[in-house]
Amino acid sequence: MGEVVEMHAAAEPAARRAVHRVTLSNPPANVLSVAAIDGLLEVLDAAKNDPDCRVVVLAAAGNVFSLGADYEEAGRRRADEDGGEAFFEASERLLAGLAQAIVRHPKPVIAEVAGAASGAGCQLVAACDLAIAAETATFRVPDVNLGLPGAGPMVALSRGLGRKHAMEMLLTGETIDARTAREFGLVNRVVPPEYLTTVVDKYASSIAAKPAEAIRLAKEAFHAQAEMGLAAAYDYAAALSAESMKSEEAREGIRAALSRRGSREAGE
Fold this sequence. Notes:
Residues 245-268 are annotated as: Disordered. 53% of the residues lie in helices and 15% in strands. By secondary structure, the protein is α/β, with parallel strands linked by helices. The radius of gyration is 20 Å and the shape is globular.
């Protein structure tokens, strides 16, 4: 694991022990250098293979979530024989692999955004399953101002936001505040900074307490059906629902729900 990334499981109770917090710590801007991306991939892989982990929280140290790609690192590679082209392509593919690792991860990944998320940092937020932001957080894809198309963030934004909202961010390069990010669909909740970690822990613990296989299937199926045509998606959903009904978790859950329903009806 790289020194720029840390991971630890939360403290008691059991539901919180199942929440693993991944912290990007690459001050001052928490840029996504090759070492940082490698570190994030390593800890995500460890969480994937940890049977005790139910939910991953992706956070960052300090007052900045991430200002995106490490342009200083990229600039140094312009002295390479090919002008840095091979490095540029490899680092972009590494960033794409990180975003896909989040989407394909079997556990839900929640972004905890305390400050600025820019460029590839904004891409990470968009790739996460849920995102909770402090009121002080800001979001931006400034690539167009640098003469770049914002191709990496474009993929995540176009799949998580409305088309016109995604295009607005890509074409203007302007900063949006946390409440606008919520309106755009980039984040789920906006909270006062002092309550950010508490709210994230509450969400994560609630999800961690749910039946693990149902959560895994819900995430996997959500992304799978989103890539299908309408008829194929409903066929897939019907087959998955029928198969899931046979699981012991579903049998117990339905039995408990029917029991509660019966108790309510008896009391009316």
